[in-house]
């Protein structure tokens, strides 16, 4: 309140600037400002096609980032999400593909019992299709469970644990598929990734997951416990918070979200890829951090992750349009992210001062 | 000694979140004199010192150092100007050596390199002056809390401060160390330094100080020569009213039924074969020295730590080992000794803290969502009952509250539902007289309402004031249990130290 | 404030229109590639961009940095920019198909460079090197050299990863030449196969044991030039790394035509290397694509084969300018 009294003595525009900087919508404002600054140079940005494109690039990344938010809030990090992407992608694609080329796959370990020339064992039936989706989600939850138990029960650092599971399950994906992509996915599945219109299946899935995650985190008992564990695990334990269960669940959610992301990407690619998402980690964690989610735990909102993802996706999109030479593109990206991070620090100071 | 003030502040004011923390405060410091600064927690003592120490600027008023305007840009500027600050909370780096801590903001250099030999020499010198005999390269984490406090003091002395501010320096010191500190303060006076001494221990203030300033709600309520004040007058000025006594009248009546029962609890090396019963409506004091196993025992009973054998029941229902949730579900509550690390979520507001324990009870039966409005309502109710002073229940971080109010939050989160058995470990450590009285009142009211309350304290006087029975512990065993009628300070002390007139060992009692 | 925002938005709108209008004059081709980590791709990238720009075509470059997902997103971006044609060095044959479907749907001519789509369901102009022919050309030259020496030889081939169609084709090309009845009296024994799995370490181990078992190997073909340094490391200690004409010279050929190969031919250690004519390929692809654009054919469907050539010790002076590895090497020297 005293700060507000101070505001009155300030010039109007400064007060306004201050309020923007201190706002939790800051990253969104930043993104909008960025787009406005660049749009004279990128005429196609506002085309319907491109907006659809931006959104369609947003949905899968958003789902994965939202899962990561849970783990970041409990003070952990989940590096293994990228391996879940590949692992679930291969398992799911193998189960439901409608045919496979024997000359490519006859040497792969799944040949003969999971996959054969006429496709995966769950192909060609609706129940099998649903089961395959469930198994994909299960793959993510399994990796999450493994992470969670290692962190919660064996007290291993999340960074270590998930680094190891990341390597392990990336390797499993490559091994299962014999380093090959699995093509020939059924049309019903491909539809799940179909995002060639503004309104699409991935949109409903991603928005659904995001809203659910938001409610879970801000309004449910579990959400309250996630924050409490992130701030102070010991105080939480003494206050009766089932700390281990909360940690395990957070990792399971992270894995589950990665698996949903895997479904969306796999369907969009129309193939299971053993290297899916291998380079996506920085986008997922980066989006959260740019959005304002703290790496040291206890601070973060789903909404922030949404803004962070939007920022990353729009940044990548506009950089595509700028027709920069390949050497400068990563440089520009680095400079922009650095600028955003610096502004975020400045903003943190201002928020603290007022 | 000349009588012109070395330091003055005139009409200093400061507000946080619109709440006035300081209002038009004037003080003067003189060479070779000790100014006692007392007041309840939240009265503005720390705020005033932080303004002087350069942590944040005042909103209004002016300060003068040596007659010249003084506006520190930051803590370093204040240190350079000759103001030394010994903090209430320990600000040392435990992973660094004593010598490194001493010179952390101004390493002696030889050329571009740090002169480690010079550091060692000066550190040894200052430590000697304080009567401490530690090697300068000893890591601070290997020191006891009291010793760490002395290192903090040594650090300020090493910087040649002309004005030295002691903020609650004795909370973690033993009686012997306190004695040493007072001798030291005497020397500092002789050397002509000006000293500010902030403390809740009014006896010490009376003994030590030359001048006195009493703050309440950010303003000065009384000031003058220390000799003009007796402890009663100090208290009256601090809390703005007379309190009949230090302890509220006891209104609780221990019942016959057992609220909490501990049977043959053992954990090798920590406690052995502990059995005790806490009756409904009873206040049971647990007294013991550091290392007597009292805190560890409480943690085992509540299920924070595991134990090897034994059983705990609440209201005759057995409690699972090492499972705080089970203990809570069966009606137990526990306020730990270390409230800063274990008591609450520092960076979160009151609502999130009050709601933490019984959040389940705020879930809407249909939507399964937390009813935050009800949590906020409940928080306001509890904050009101416990007289917590706050600016906002849902926006102000608990860490910005004063110590006493923080403790009330740590306590308040257990009071959403009436606990059957409540364990309080050092509930009044580091909080002021007024807040202490309020905590005693809360304890009494809870017991009067039928809860069993177990209070661990290292202040025997406090237990004698509020407890129905006192259990004396030593090295993991119960030595003797005293009923209220037979409270005898000397006898209880002897039991806690295991000294017996007849030289015989007293067996454990239940 | 609101007023200002409106003005800005209006200005932006005008800019967009203007930019949109001015873009229609020049042919615009999007060029998507995977990365520039290896020499071959640097050369390929250079060949394509130079060829296109040389024709006055605007090239919009997209580097996906080894991320297939990003390449897919970049393709969609390219489609949204309504380019006139798309040229891709895809991550793999499967991605080439997924991207092809999108390009077909958007009615933009689609060309694939070097990595053929794994299915012929899509309409695309595809340029691939004919590995078999190229390998055969290189090995043929080696055989001719061997004939000139008038003695018998112990032949060997370093095989790539046989899961890779390129490796299979190169091996086939080798046998095509060696089994030519013309050379049937050259050989002491059947060719010895040394597996490399496209891995330099695997090769070093296998090659070392092969040389121990058959110390007489004196006719060697490697399925890729990138393994030359490792082969040298094994041969040199045995005293078999000598120039053409030396009695202990191993008749040695490779395939790819990278910088190392160019240097080794120039110095005389390597007899021949099969070269993918990247520059010719780029030109073939561009011509086919531009032709389709000009005809208004939005779904050209055509497979073009690059017969390549063998750069040898004999024709080095004439043809080294056509080999991408040499071009890179000379450019570096020029600096």
> What's the overall geometry of chain B?
globular
For the termini of chain B, the CA-CA separation is 62 Å
**Residue share in β-strands of chain B:** 15-25%
Write the H/E string of chain A, N to C.
Answer: HHHHHHEEHHHHHHHHHH
Question: What would you report as the Rg of chain A, rounded to the nearest angstrom?
Answer: 22 Å
Level-1 CATH class name of the largest domain in chain B = Alpha Beta
Mean of pLDDT of chain A: 88
Could you explain how this protein is built, in words?
The complex is a heterotrimer of chains A (354), B (510) and C (335). With 354 residues, chain A is mainly alpha-helical. Chain A has a domain at 59-279. Chain A has helices at 2-9, 12-22, 26-38, 48-73, 81-96, 102-105, 126-152, 158-177, 187-192, 201-219, 221-231, 233-238, 243-269, 281-291, 302-321, 326-353; strands at residues 115-116, 119-120. Helices cover 32% and strands 25% of the residues of chain B. In chain B, strand 16 and strand 17 (317-318) form a beta hairpin. Chain C has 335 residues and is α/β, with parallel strands linked by helices. Chain C has 2 domains: 27-123, Response regulator (Rossmann fold, 3-Layer(aba) Sandwich); 131-276 and 314-320 and 328-334, 3-Layer(aba) Sandwich (Rossmann fold), CATH 3.40.50. Chain C is elongated and about 65 Å long. At the A-C interface, helix 4, helix 13, helix 15 and helix 16 of A face helix 1, strand 2, helix 3 and helix 4 of C.
Features:
heterotrimer; A: 354 residues; mainly alpha; two-stranded antiparallel sheet; disordered N terminus; C: 335 residues; alpha/beta; Rossmann fold; 6-stranded parallel sheet
């Amino acid at each position: 309140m005293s700060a507000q009294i101070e505001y009155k003595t300030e010039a109007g525009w400064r007060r306004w600037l201050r309020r923007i900087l201190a706002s939790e919508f800051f990253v969104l404002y930043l993104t909008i400002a960025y787009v406005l600054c660049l749009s004279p140079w990128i005429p196609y940005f506002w085309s319907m096609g491109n907006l659809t494109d931006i959104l369609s690039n947003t949905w899968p990344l958003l789902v994965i980032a939202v899962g990561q938010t849970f783990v970041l809030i409990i003070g952990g990090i989940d590096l293994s999400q990228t391996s879940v992407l590949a692992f679930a992608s291969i398992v799911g694609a193998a189960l439901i593909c409608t045919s496979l080329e024997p000359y490519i796959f006859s040497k792969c370990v799944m040949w003969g019992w999971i996959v054969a020339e006429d496709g995966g064992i769950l192909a060609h039936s609706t129940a099998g299709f649903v089961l395959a989706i469930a198994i994909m989600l299960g793959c993510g939850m399994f990796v999450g469970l493994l992470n969670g138990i290692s962190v919660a029960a064996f007290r291993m650092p999340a960074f270590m644990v998930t680094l190891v599971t990341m390597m392990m399950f990336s390797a499993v994906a490559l091994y299962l598929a014999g380093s090959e992509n699995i093509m020939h996915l059924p049309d019903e599945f491909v539809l799940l990734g179909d995002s060639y219109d503004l309104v699409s299946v991935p949109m409903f899935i991603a928005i659904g997951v995001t809203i659910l995650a938001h409610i879970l985190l801000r309004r449910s008992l579990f959400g309250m416990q996630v924050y409490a564990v992130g701030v102070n695990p010991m105080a939480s334990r003494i206050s009766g918070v089932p700390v281990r269960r909360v940690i395990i669940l957070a990792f399971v959610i992270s894995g589950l979200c990665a698996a949903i992301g895997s479904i969306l990407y796999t369907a969009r690619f129309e193939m299971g890829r053993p290297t899916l998402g291998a380079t996506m980690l920085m986008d997922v964690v980066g989006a959260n951090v740019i959005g304002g989610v703290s790496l040291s735990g206890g601070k973060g909102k789903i909404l922030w992750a949404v803004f962070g993802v939007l920022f990353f996706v729009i940044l990548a999109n506009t950089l595509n349009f700028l027709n920069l030479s390949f050497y400068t593109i990563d440089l520009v990206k680095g400079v922009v992210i650095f600028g955003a991070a610096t502004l975020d620090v400045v903003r943190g100071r201002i928020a603290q001062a007022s | 000694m000349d009588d012109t003030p070395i330091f003055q502040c005139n009409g200093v004011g400061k507000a946080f979140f619109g709440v006035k923390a300081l209002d038009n405060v004037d003080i003067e410091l003189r060479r070779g004199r000790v100014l006692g600064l007392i007041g309840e927690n939240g009265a503005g003592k720390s705020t005033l010192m932080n303004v002087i120490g350069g942590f944040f600027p005042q909103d209004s008023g002016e300060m003068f150092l040596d007659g010249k305007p003084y506006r520190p840009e930051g803590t370093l500027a204040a240190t350079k100007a000759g103001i030394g600050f010994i903090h209430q909370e320990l600000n040392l780096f435990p992973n660094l050596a004593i010598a490194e801590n001493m010179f952390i903001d101004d390493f002696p250099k030889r050329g571009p390199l740090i002169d480690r030999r010079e550091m060692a020499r000066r550190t040894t010198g200052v430590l000697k002056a304080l009567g401490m005999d530690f090697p300068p390269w000893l890591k601070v984490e290997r020191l006891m809390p009291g010793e760490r406090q002395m290192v903090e003091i040594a650090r300020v002395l090493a910087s040649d401060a002309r004005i030295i501010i002691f903020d609650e320096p004795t909370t973690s010191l033993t009686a012997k160390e306190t004695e040493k500190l007072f001798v030291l303060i005497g020397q500092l006076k002789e050397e002509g330094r000006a000293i500010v001494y902030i403390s809740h221990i009014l006896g010490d203030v009376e003994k030590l100080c030359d001048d006195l300033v009493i703050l309440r709600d950010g303003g000065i309520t009384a000031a003058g020569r220390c000799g003009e004040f007796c402890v009663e007058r100090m208290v009256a000025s601090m809390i703005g009213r007379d309190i009949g006594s230090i302890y509220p009248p006891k209104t609780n009546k221990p019942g016959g039924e057992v609220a909490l029962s501990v049977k043959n609890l053992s954990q090798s090396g920590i406690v052995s074969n502990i059995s005790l019963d806490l009756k409904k409506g009873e206040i049971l004091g647990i007294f013991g020295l550091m290392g007597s196993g009292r805190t560890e025992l409480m943690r085992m009973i509540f299920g924070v730590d595991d134990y090897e054998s034994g059983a705990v029941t609440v209201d005759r229902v057995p409690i699972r080992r090492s499972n705080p949730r089970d203990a809570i579900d069966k009606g137990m509550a526990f306020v730990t000794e270390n409230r800063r690390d274990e008591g609450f979520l520092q960076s979160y507001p009151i609502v999130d803290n009050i709601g933490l324990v019984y959040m389940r009870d705020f879930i809407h039966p249909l939507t399964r969502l937390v009813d935050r409005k009800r949590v906020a309502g409940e928080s306001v109710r509890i904050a009101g009952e416990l007289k917590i002073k706050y600016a906002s229940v849902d926006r102000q971080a608990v860490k910005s509250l004063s110590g006493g109010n923080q403790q009330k939050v740590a306590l308040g989160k257990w009071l959403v539902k009436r606990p059957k058995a409540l364990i309080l470990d050092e509930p009044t450590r580091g909080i002021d007289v007024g807040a202490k009285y309020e905590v005693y009142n809360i304890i009494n009211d809870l017991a009067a309402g039928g809860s069993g309350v177990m209070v661990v304290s290292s202040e025997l006087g406090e237990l004698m004031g509020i407890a129905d029975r006192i259990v004396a512990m030593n090295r993991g065993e119960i030595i003797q249990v005293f009923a209220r009628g037979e409270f005898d300070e000397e006898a209880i002390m002897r039991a806690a130290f295991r000294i017996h007139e007849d030289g015989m060992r007293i067996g454990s009692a239940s | 404030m609101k007023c200002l925002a409106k003005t800005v938005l209006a200005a932006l709108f005008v800019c967009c229109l203007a930019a949109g209008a001015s873009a229609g004059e020049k042919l615009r081709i999007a060029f998507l590639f995977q990365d520039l980590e290896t020499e071959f791709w640097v050369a390929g990238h250079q060949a394509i961009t130079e060829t296109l720009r040389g024709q006055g075509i605007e090239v919009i470059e997209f580097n996906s940095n080894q991320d297939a997902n990003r390449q897919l997103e970049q393709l969609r971006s390219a489609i949204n920019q309504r380019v006139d044609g798309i040229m891709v060095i895809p991550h793999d044959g499967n991605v080439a198909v997924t991207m092809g479907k999108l390009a077909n749907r958007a009615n933009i001519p689609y060309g694939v460079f070097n990595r053929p789509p794994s299915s012929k369901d899509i309409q695309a102009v595809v340029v691939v090197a004919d590995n078999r022919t190229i390998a055969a050309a290189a090995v043929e030259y080696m055989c001719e050299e061997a004939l000139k020496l008038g003695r018998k030889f112990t032949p060997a081939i370093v095989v790539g990863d046989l899961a890779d169609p390129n490796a299979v084709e190169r091996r086939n090309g080798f046998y095509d030449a060696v089994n030519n009845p013309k050379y049937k009296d050259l050989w002491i024994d059947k060719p010895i196969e040394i597996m490399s799995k496209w891995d330099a370490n695997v090769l070093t181990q296998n090659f070392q044991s092969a040389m121990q078992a058959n110390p007489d190997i004196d006719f060697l073909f490697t399925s890729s030039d990138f393994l030359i340094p490792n082969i040298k490391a094994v041969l040199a200690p045995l005293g078999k790394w000598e120039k053409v004409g030396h009695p202990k010279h191993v008749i040695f050929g490779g395939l790819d035509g990278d910088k190392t190969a160019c240097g080794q031919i120039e110095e005389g250690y390597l007899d021949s290397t099969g070269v993918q004519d990247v520059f010719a390929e780029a030109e073939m692809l561009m011509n086919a694509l531009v032709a389709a654009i000009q005809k208004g054919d939005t779904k050209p469907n055509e497979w073009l084969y690059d017969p390549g050539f063998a750069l040898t010790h004999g024709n080095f002076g004439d043809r080294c300018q056509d080999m991408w590895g040499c071009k890179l090497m000379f450019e570096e020297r020029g600096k």
